[in-house]
Structure formats: structure tokens, C-alpha cells
Amino acid sequence: MKLYTYFRSSAAYRVRIALNLKGLQYDAIPVHLLRGGGEQLQEQYRSINPSGLVPAFQDDYITLTQSMAILEYLEDAYPQTPIMPKDATERAHVRELAQIIACDIHPVNNLRVLRYLVQELGISEEKKNEWYRHWLVGGLEVLEKHLARDPAAGPLCHGRTPTIADCCLVPQVFNAQRHGIDVSVYPNIARINAQCVEIPAFIAAHPSNQPDAE
Ligand SMILES: N[C@@H](CCC(=O)N[C@@H](CS)C(=O)NCC(=O)O)C(=O)O
């Protein structure tokens, strides 16, 4: 198995957590998002992932992009240590939580979007940071409301064992903290994150523990 990854990429971080939870060994192939204008945009990497984003994942004869598709593939192909509940309604619910992050928060704050705002639309660094904060804080507020009203939310997003929702939450909180956003104002998010970051699979997936960490 190969994972094309960047230590600080939150989408790759999701996949690293899932691989670790399932005890799967993989080769980490670093793709530097900033060096030389971005290795993710070079032809060599685009032949693997045409969208020029990390992660990309290879297993036997399959090449997959999109972190959420990779997480679901891992769950289907390697059912040991499940990261999804079995029940259909619970599964849908876990996907709902994960997608608040992966579909509603993350894409509008991606590097290429922020670059476009500054380089093509001429937005100042200050306005760019305001944009980032606006979508992140708004999304965390929504996620917090879901977790607060959900009887299935336990020590983790759904009960006691990590799911794909936790695989998404922890990297997003890492990003928020890196940008100086205080997540303690979201008690459920803060509590779940605090539990997760003690789990060895999450620790090993942390950006600072990656071979390409700077
Ligand atoms: N929907 C994709 C998003 C992947 C993505 O946005 N990756 C970011 C890093 S977290 C990236 O490669 N950014 C590089 C860029 O924007 O040029 C997924 O979930 O895999």
C-alpha cells in the first residue's frame, strides 16, 4: 500500500488515522504542497491524481483519490477494527458528521482556494484569513450543535470507538488550532478531540510524527 501524503494535509491525516486504526502498513510517499510551486501540481503526480490534491492511495491494482472514498474502501476491504457502525441509520449519521467537515468546511479553505483569492482576485492576507476563519468557525458551530443533540455521541463522535467522523474531526481541529482558533468554546468537539489524541493510531498519524514533517 502507498499513501501519497503531506504531513500537514488534513485530508491525508484522515487516511493515516484510518490506516493506523486498522493496523495496515503502508509506504508514505511525500508530496510537498509548497515546494517548487507545489509538487501536487506537477505532471508526475497528476498522472496519479489528476485533481492535483493529496492524498492519493494505491493498493494492489487500485488507485484511489478522495479521502472519504479511501476511508470507505479501507472499511470495505479491511473490515478488521471497523470504523463505521453496522446499522444503516448509524452509518448514515456518522457520514453526516464526517461530511460536515469534509464537504462543508474543508473544501472552501483549501490551499488552492486561498491562493486563488489572493493571487487571482487580489484579496488581502487579512481578508483571506477572515474568509478562512468564517467558514471554519461556522462549520465547527454546526458540528457542535449536531454532537450536542445526538444521544449516540459518546466519548467519541459516535459511541466509544473511532469512526470516520473522528478521522475527520481531529485533523480539522488541528487546522483550527494552527490558525489560532480556540476550540474549547465547542465543548463536545473539544472533549472528543482530547479523547482521540490519546489513542496511539491518532498519535502516529499526527503531522509532527510524519517522516516529511518540518
Ligand atoms: N476532497 C479531497 C480534498 C483533498 C485536498 O484538498 N487536499 C489538500 C490538502 S488537505 C491539497 O492537496 N491541497 C493542495 C492545493 O490546494 O493545491 C479529499 O478529501 O481527498
Task: Give the SSE map.
Elements: E1 2-5, H1 10-21, E2 27-30, H2 43-46, E3 56-59, E4 62-65, H3 67-77, H4 88-105, H5 111-120, H6 125-149, H7 164-178, H8 187-196, H9 200-205
Parallel strand pairs: 1-2
Antiparallel strand pairs: 1-3, 3-4
This protein binds glutathione.
The site of glutathione has 16 residues, from helix 1, helix 3 and helix 5.
InterPro entries: Glutathione-S-Trfase_C-like, Glutathione-S-Trfase_C_sf, Glutathione_S-Trfase, Glutathione_S-Trfase_N, GST_Zeta, GST_Zeta_C, GST_Zeta_N, Thioredoxin-like_sf
GO molecular function, one term: maleylacetoacetate isomerase activity
EC number: 5.2.1.2
Total E-strand runs:
4
Helical coverage, percent range: 40-55%
Average pLDDT works out at: 97
How many domains, in number, for the residues? Answer: 2
Which outline best applies? globular
Notes on the structure:
It contains 9 helices and 4 strands, in the order βαβαββααααααα. The protein is of the alpha+beta class. 34% of the residues are buried. The model has no long low-confidence stretch (mean pLDDT 97). Glutathione binds next to helix 1, helix 3 and helix 5. The site of glutathione (GSH) has 16 residues, from helix 1, helix 3 and helix 5.
Summarize the structure.
With 214 residues, the chain is of the alpha+beta class. The chain is 52% helix and 7% strand.
Provide the descriptors you would attach to this structure in a database record.
214 residues; alpha+beta; Glutaredoxin; 4-stranded mixed sheet; 9 helices; globular; binds glutathione; GST_Zeta_C
